[in-house]
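Quick one, probably user error.
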């Protein structure tokens, strides 16, 4: 009797199929819903895009069996999500009553708390700016539109605008932890941008001119030394 080897990826007869539901495309990890690319299609058949070719099978057989690693320690939802995303942004403020400036560029820092999807905004203090700075918007869920929706971390990205209470903020870049978190969540981040320089602040930056008194002739020193001193000369003349 000759036995024919059965391949791992075989076509199942339609009469033997008993699972016609759609494959799972979402997973629940660390309290967050993340996308998951399916490996099988409807009916349990493996997807053509996920089937291994002959070279992959040879490489897997040569590499040996995979050693199963120990599972990670359980981390509660409120501990795993006790992280903060940090974005750097700016907004332009029109100056209608100033003859020396048309607009101001005001940088801000946006914090997003993963625990409860709240956000807050700070404006770094600039020396001698003359405007109130510090906490700009307190921590709460930022409204996204008039329908009651709020901003989520999936709505944020680099080089995009978000509007909060009628002010448009341009996100320019983020820190390294935020970048890794967004990429793990399936968000493709845009190219980081630089915050524009405020024209009025740049114009105010000037160097104090330095003056070196020449050593050959000191006018001020001579004035201070000779002040109050008068030469007296006696003379006479003859009449012929």
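Nope, works fine. Designed sequence:
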């Amino acid at each position: 009797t000759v036995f024919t080897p059965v391949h791992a990826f075989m076509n199942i007869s339609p009469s033997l199929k008993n699972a016609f539901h759609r494959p799972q495309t979402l997973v629940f990890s660390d309290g967050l819903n993340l996308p998951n690319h399916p490996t099988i299609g409807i009916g349990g058949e493996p997807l053509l895009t996920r089937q291994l070719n002959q070279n992959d099978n040879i490489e897997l057989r040569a590499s040996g069996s995979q050693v199963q690693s120990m599972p990670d320690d359980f981390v509660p939802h409120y501990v795993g999500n006790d992280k903060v995303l940090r974005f750097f942004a700016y907004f332009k403020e029109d100056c209608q009553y100033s003859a020396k400036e048309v607009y101001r560029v005001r940088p801000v820092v946006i914090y997003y708390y993963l625990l409860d999807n709240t956000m807050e905004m700070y404006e770094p203090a600039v020396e001698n700016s003359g405007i109130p700075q510090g906490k700009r918007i307190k921590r709460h869920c930022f409204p996204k539109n008039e329908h009651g929706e709020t901003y989520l971390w999936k709505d944020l990205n680099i080089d995009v605008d978000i509007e909060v209470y009628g002010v448009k903020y341009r996100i320019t870049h983020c820190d390294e932890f935020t970048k890794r978190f967004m990429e793990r969540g399936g968000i493709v981040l845009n190219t980081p941008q630089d915050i524009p320089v405020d024209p009025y602040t740049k114009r105010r930056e000037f160097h104090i001119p330095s003056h070196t008194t020449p050593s050959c002739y000191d006018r001020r020193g001579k004035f201070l030394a000779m002040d109050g001193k008068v030469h007296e000369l006696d003379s006479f003349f003859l009449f012929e």
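The chain has a mean pLDDT of 79.
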